[in-house]
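To whoever is covering the structure queue this week,

Two jobs came back overnight. Logging them here so there's a record in the thread.

Job A:
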Amino acid sequence: MKYTLKTLSILLGYPQDEFRKLVENPEDVYELLSLEDEEIARLIYNFLKGIDPEKADEIYVSIFELPAKCPLYAHYYIVKDKEGELGRFLLEIKGQFKMHGYDIPAGKEIPDYLPAMLEFLSLIVERDKRSAAKFAKRYIKTWTKKFKACVERNNRVYLPVAEALDRVMDKLLESS
């Protein structure tokens, strides 16, 4: 799960060098990820083969950025209508990060940014599967189906990634 989580973190982040390396080497990515889960590896492979690297930035911005059709922030799905809850929610996530020795570099993103949470999980999943599953259940799994439905409605290019995310969360919770 470690490599799958890290790969999803890269794919759901803004398309930069790491993203482009994955797109250039889909067979290598599939080979590595299939050691963790072949079905999820196939979804990611299909995305990598189907995305046009020249249009990746444009596609990403059209779905995940201003105005975001499918936000990559957990608070949008979990505390959206709960006034006054956002600060506590973000501090809770940041506390989980710090407890495991992980911190988002200052000025980079807020803690509930999905790629940051997936990167965090990739770092702790092998050494503390129970904590990883607990984190995934509390902060990610509760909204992956909504996210997947949003992606399906707005830009099917990212649908294999959204499906892979949902399946990874299921698998992580099963294995704890």
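Job B:
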Amino acid sequence: MISKKIVIVGHFGVGKSSLIKRFVEDVFIDDYKVTIGVHILKKTVKTSDKEINLIIWDTEGAESVEELLPAYLLGTHGFIFVCDVTRPKTFENLQEQLDLLSTFNKLAPILTVGNKSDLLPKGTIHEAKEAMPFLDVLTSAKDGKNVQRLFEKMAKLIIS
């Protein structure tokens, strides 16, 4: 079986840990706990013809990729940059942050995720997606919307 390192990055409180918990354990915990350093979880994803063991690195929240220890980012096969759709500050300077990530592995795919879509007013998700075309996926760790799809999409990008 193939193992691939995925690193999740983004500001404090955007839901990085919640997305990973939802994906790996299919649970959502309302109690917010700050990640200190890095937390590593694993889950196997099946694509059409392969199984991939995703080694998911949940990094501490940081306003800039530069604040993270380079050791967390080295050897990464794919990055997921998480934003909070209700806090524009979390996606300001996004391109600069993505450029910094790519310096650690120019070939690693990067997916940008708008989390907390459940907090958008009912009936506005389509409009929100149009207003934020830089996002690859809108998710909700709370209700599980598109979480599995996000990680399956990353797995497919890594092996293609």
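Note for Job B: The helical segments are 16-25, 70-73, 94-102, 125-131, 147-159.

Please reply-all if you pick these up so we don't duplicate work.
Q.
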